[in-house]
Amino acid sequence: MMSFILYFALILIIPIWAQSKVKSTYKKYSKVAISSSMSGAEVARKILDDNGLFNVAVEEVRGQLSDHYDPRSKVVRLSTDNFHGRSAAGAAVAAHEVGHAIQDAQDYAFLRFRSALVPVASFGSNISIFLIIGGALLQMTGLIFAGIVFFAFAVLFQLVTLPVEFDASNRAMTQLVSTGVIRNEEERPTKKVLNAAAMTYVAGALVALAELLRFIFMFFGMGEE
């Protein structure tokens, strides 16, 4: 019973810790101005243009840390604070999202794989828990196995997301330095923002993997009864 409580405490604490980390880091460095005095929108536009991605637009979107790249519309969307802000945090986030646009333009393999996984991963994350719970209640290992298979695709999506996000951050740092958006002494705070954001994806993947293992142990446990 104690191990069961500890397990659920961990899968709750890890994501909360990661979210708290990224929010506190972002808040801290959103108050640190960069020497180039460029807004997030200007940073994104400059990096896009320097890479020949004139067809990719930069737009403002509502919300906090709602920044993302839309590969279907070819649009980098930045939250209001990052779109207008001239901080290390804003520059880091903008460059990271442009990193995804560059991945898209260069046909980055992991990005393509992740995009291909979206339909089955979305379906799997929605249906798997119902199959697993139903199988456990009805003592039907077949249903649990089907749920595990579907959930495994959702976990695979989380795992594939890691190299996509880390690569985008690496591209962001390279572009910020090579374009002169930040100076040497500004690399450290920029990296901190990118690393904190990456931890949310790591936490998500760890929790998803832990859940998958729990379901697998449940399946084999029922088989032994």
Automatic annotation (TrEMBL):
InterPro entries: Zn_peptidase_2 (IPR007395)
Pfam families associated with the record: Zn_peptidase_2 (PF04298)
Superkingdom assignment: Bacteria
Keywords annotated in UniProt: Membrane, Transmembrane, Transmembrane helix
Transmembrane segments: 116-138, 143-164, 198-220
Keyword GTP-binding appears in the UniProt entry: no
Stated name of the protein: Zn-dependent protease
